[in-house]
Amino acid sequence: MTPMLRLSEVRKVFGGLVALNDLSFEVAPGSIVAMIGPNGAGKSTVFNLITGVYQPTHGSIDLEGRSLRGLDTAAIASLGIARTFQNVRLFAFMSARDNVMTGRHARMRANLVDSLLHTPAQRAEEKSVRERARELLRFVGLEREADSYARNLPYGSQRRLEIARGLAGDPKLLLLDEPAAGMNPKEKESLIDLIGRIRARGVTIFLIEHDMQLVMNVSERVTVLDHGEKIAEGAPEVVRRDERVIEAYLGRADGAA
Questions:
Q1: What is the pLDDT of residues 179-198, one digit of tens each?
Q2: What is the CATH number that goes with domain 5-80+171-250?
Q3: Beta bridge partners of 26
Q4: Strand (E) or helix (H) holding 24
Q5: 8-25 b/e (C-beta count within 10 Å ≥ 16 → b)
């Protein structure tokens, strides 16, 4: 089976700093995979390389066997990759509904002329996008907040809204950058349920996360980075017992996992 995502010997150098050193791993279709590691390990660099924010200094990145090298962020999004960010990036003074609708932009067919003239095709597409936004808000539990400004939503709801916006483009692969950051225990439970329901829709999920309880609950496979290099990979129960992982990330003092 062709991997949904494959990184092969990927290296990224910024000036004289090696941010990633010959990183290779795969994400299987329909799976939930996590990447963990201490701050500065290179995790966000991985996401930025996958989404075209950066280009690799060396190596290859493939989506379902197709190279992403040289493609910009818009082209990569159109191929079926969506992401959220470590720090929530929403349009603060737009409604929740309109925020989700912006996530559909890459899939819309109406051109500038259609929009200016309000052609029947443009109106039909606008209606379809609005209905899709309503469905996604319901899916993430924010249907009642559809008309609320994003800035007025509780932090956990903003996180879910960003996920809904990512889903609006019908991605094959959803990248979640620390989705549980700032959430209380109840919100984390809801997030775990939401991640499972997203996967049930056929979306492959690759996440970066510091919350080890969430990682262990949702992930089928975990990759561990330290100083830009992969130091461990495997099932969560195997990774949590790896001495290199304990030393680099989980901590020997309390054995947290």
A1: 998 889 999 999 999 999 99
A2: 3.40.50.300
A3: 6
A4: strand 17-27
A5: eebebeeeeebbbbebeb
Query: Strands 173-177 and 66-67: what pairing?
Result: unpaired
- Could you tell me the pLDDT band of residue 250, with boundaries at 50, 70 and 90? low
112's enclosing H/E stretch is helix 112-117
Q: Where are the domains of the chain?
A: 5-80+171-250
Q: How many CB atoms lie within 10 A of CB 251?
A: 12
Burial profile 53-65: b = 16 or more Cβ within 10 angstroms, e = fewer: ebebeebebbbee
pTM of the model: 0.88
Strands (E), 150-235: 173-177, 204-208, 221-226, 229-234
What's the half-sphere exposure (Cβ side, CA atoms, 13 Å) at 128? 13
Which pLDDT score, from 0 to 100, does residue 251 have?
57
Task: Give the span between the Cα atoms of 98 and 127, in whole angstroms.
Answer: 12
Give me the mean pLDDT over the 31-53 stretch: 94
The tens digit of pLDDT for each residue in 223-241 reads: 999 999 999 999 999 998 8
Quote the crossing angle between the two packed helices 185-200 and 155-167, to the nearest 10°: 10
Q: What pLDDT score was predicted for residue 128?
A: 82
